[in-house]
Write a structure and sequence with these properties.
It is built from 13 helices and 8 strands. The protein is α/β, with parallel strands linked by helices. The chain has one domain: Alpha/Beta hydrolase fold, catalytic domain (Rossmann fold), CATH 3.40.50. The protein has an 8-stranded mixed beta sheet with strand order 1-2-4-3-5-6-7-8, with helices on both faces. Helix 3 crosses helix 13. It starts with a helix and ends with a helix. The N terminus is likely disordered.
Length: 314
Amino acid sequence: MRFTRILAIGVLALVALAGAGVALTWAPDRPVEALKARWAPWPSRFIEVEGMSVHLRDEGPRTDGTPLVLLHGTSASLHTWDGWVDALKGERRVIRIDLPGFGLTGPAADGDYHLARYSRFVGALLDDLGLKQVVLAGNSFGGQVAWKFAADAPDRVARLVLVDAAGYPYRPESVPLAFRMARIPVLEPLMTHTLPRSMVESSVRNVYGDPARVTPELVDRYHELALREGNRGALVQRFRQSPGGEFTEQIPRIKAPTLILWGGRDRLIPLENGQRFGREIAGSKLVVFDTLGHVPHEEDPVATAAALKVFLAQ
């Protein structure tokens, strides 16, 4: 009897601790309107694409006949490209968006997060913007969407830029905590109602080659935009519906001139995947930044944009 009583007390204590943990990390969804003041000042605007209000920034000279379109990775936003835009907008028209499921765009209207759906979305976006052909660049999952679209619609991609792009199966050295949790179905209720800032900080530091470059302001951005209404549920669905390794048979068919940028300290998608892109896309060029991680364009926009400028000038 005494053992049963002690066991019951122990269970109750654990439940109380778990409840306290949830209470301390409880983070309700935030309406998009509450986030716009900080994260969507000018030149941000919103356009309707396939039933979604898509957050977009379109900067640089409109005389540029082949604009650069930038696609961010999982749990990122158009802000990840700030440094590249600063380096390029004096000479090139640069368009960046929050992809469906992320940033201020938020969940897809139809709940479809398959890779083929994202490729069709890019085509619809270009149609709405009146763009026949673009230079398409993407990081991580955005890179996967970019090469998929380049394979699906080769006449619309003049040049392709892959930045630590997803696509091939890979063996990560380390996976951000938030990504690991989002892949565990039983944790979905927890994922969609709690979000410790410390977990976001840990995840961002994990993808940087030099974690000392991660600032409090950067963590704030990732944290607050993850709280956009519906984004956490969309992240879970994105992982379920768009697994790696799909459509890779299309990669060797890509004919657009291609630049591959890779962080030598990428612990999520290893350099060997970048080298495989280089082998399978004929005529492509691989540039490796030895000290950078999975988001080299964000970690060191000056060095990576310089490599991009050389490629665009060729």
